[in-house]
Each structure stands twice: as C-alpha cells, then as structure tokens.
Write a sequence for this structure.
C-alpha cells in the first residue's frame, strides 16, 4: 500500500509540470506578426508594449483611436557572444514600408504587428524570429502575480499623465504603481530613452522574481503567474511555451553582467523633418555596423548608446 501511495505521488509530481506546460501552451494568445523573411544569424525577439485605449486595467479612453506602442525592444541572442537588449525609441525616424519617413510607432498604428516587424527588420537588418506584445493593463496583473517588485528611480516625480508619484530611491511597488513607473515620460529629462530604461528595469525585476525552484513547490502561484502572463501577452503565430521560456532566459542574460543594454547610436532627440513633430534621429553611418555587431555578438558587454551628450 505504501509503495502504491509513493507511486501515485511520484506520478503526480512528474505529471504536474507537464500538464502545466500543456495548459499554458493552450492559453497563449497569438497574432499574425512575422514577415517570413530569410533567417539571419542568431535568434531575434521583438518585444512591444501596446497601449490600446479602454483596455481593462490600462489607459482610459481619451479619444485616441487604435493602438500605440510606447515600448519597442529588440532582444537578440547571437550564435556566440553577449545577448543584447536594445531599446528602439518609439519616435525613431524610420522608413515605414508603403508610408515613407515616419516615427517608428506609426508603423504599429497603421499596420499592427506585421508592419512594425517589417519596419524594424528594415532598420536593423535582423529578421525577427519571435514577436511578443504586452498590453499595458497586463503589466499590473503580472506584477501582482509575482507579489510586487522593487524599483529604483533617483528623481522626485508627481506626474498626472502617468499617475507616477515617487520619492527618490528604491521602493516596493504593486501592479498599479509599476504601470505608472513604466508609462511616465514627460517628467523624465531623458524622455523616451529614460522611460525605456525604467521599462527594462521593470521587466527585469519581474523576471528576477520568477524563481523556478521556488515556484515548483507552489503550484497555486504557478497557475496564477501563468494565468496573468498568458492573459497579458500576445505572441506571433509560431511561438510556443518553450520559446517563451527561452525569451525569459535571454532577457535575464541581457540584463546580467555579461549582457548588453541600451539604444542604437542617436544623434538628435529633437529632429524635425516636417509634419510629424519631434523625432529621434539615429546616426545614419553608425547604425548599420552597430546592428551588424549585435547580430554577430562582437559588441563588448555593457551599456550602449543613450541620449547624446547624456
């Protein structure tokens, strides 16, 4: 009888993670995103934050139609060399296929994930292998699912647009506070670049809280986290749950001491080509070799780019 009980317990212990994987894979939300372009070396992920108005837990209706993306991150794992997480400012001036020169986030507004992917591929020369989009409302749910996170910012902030109220230093925050932390831009002297730094910090803090060994002993917490994550995230048509796990590992590596984080080479944060307001202008000569080095894994670990003169 004792052997039978042990056998049943062992079966449950083995079946639980397998069943959780199957369940999680079935819950993944997917969308058409990939271009089908020829593969480039390594694995490239495009991560975006979508702020569809009226989304539950996200931004209230304000008359803006359609979706915008305030977060655009390129995560690349080369065949050898450091993993890189590159923030592409939403206002980066680019060529959008079929539309000409425009801000990068206009591609998402005009053509959703497929046009954004094509535009990023044209800018970077890297074929996107996997696409992930997180709804702004989902940020709060994921942070609450991991029990909150600790975030740091050196400035005092009382920003009505984002709802961020902050005293200098590091603080434990819940999902609502984390969402405001990720959205704040106007009160940041570095604008979109500063916001991108905080967004990377937030995602890194969430990833750091997800300890597989600890979660293995807490099935209820596993289910809550998977439920929040799959509800908040939308992936490309080819992504499976194991790809999601690889993405999380890559993100952790990029933010570690051996990884690369930052922006492409920026020459002007207030470029005004006409009819689109202020845009971010990348260095035309330095940008192609920069992304080639990201692709090939030849950049040294550390910070790259940033605000000119900052």
């Amino acid at each position: 009888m004792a052997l039978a009980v042990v056998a049943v317990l062992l079966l449950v212990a083995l079946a639980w993670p397998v069943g959780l994987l199957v369940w999680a894979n079935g819950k993944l939300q997917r969308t058409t995103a990939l271009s089908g372009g020829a593969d480039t070396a390594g694995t490239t992920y495009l991560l975006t934050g979508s702020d569809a108005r009226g989304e539950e837990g996200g931004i209230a209706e304000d008359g803006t139609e359609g979706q915008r993306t305030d977060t655009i991150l390129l995560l690349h794992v080369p065949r050898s060399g450091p993993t890189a997480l590159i923030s592409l400012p939403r206002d980066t001036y680019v060529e959008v296929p079929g539309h000409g020169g425009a801000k990068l986030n206009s591609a998402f507004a005009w053509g959703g994930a497929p046009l954004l992917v094509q535009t990023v591929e044209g800018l970077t020369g890297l074929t996107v292998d996997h696409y992930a989009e997180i709804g702004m409302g989902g940020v709060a749910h994921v942070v609450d699912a991991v029990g909150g996170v600790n975030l740091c910012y050196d400035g005092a902030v009382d920003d009505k647009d984002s709802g961020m109220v902050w005293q200098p230093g590091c603080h434990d925050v819940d999902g609502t506070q984390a969402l405001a932390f990720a959205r704040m831009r106007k009160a940041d002297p570095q604008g979109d670049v500063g916001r991108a730094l905080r967004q990377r910090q937030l995602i890194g803090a969430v990833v750091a809280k997800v300890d597989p060994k600890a979660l293995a002993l807490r099935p209820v917490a596993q289910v809550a986290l998977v439920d929040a994550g799959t509800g908040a995230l939308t992936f490309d048509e080819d992504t499976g749950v194991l790809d999601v796990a690889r993405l999380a590992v890559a993100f952790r590596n990029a933010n570690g001491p051996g990884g690369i984080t930052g922006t492409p080479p920026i020459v002007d944060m207030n470029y005004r080509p006409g009819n689109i307001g202020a845009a971010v202008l990348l260095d035309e000569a330095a940008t192609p070799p920069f992304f080639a080095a990201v692709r090939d894994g030849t950049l040294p670990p550390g910070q790259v780019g940033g605000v000119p003169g900052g």
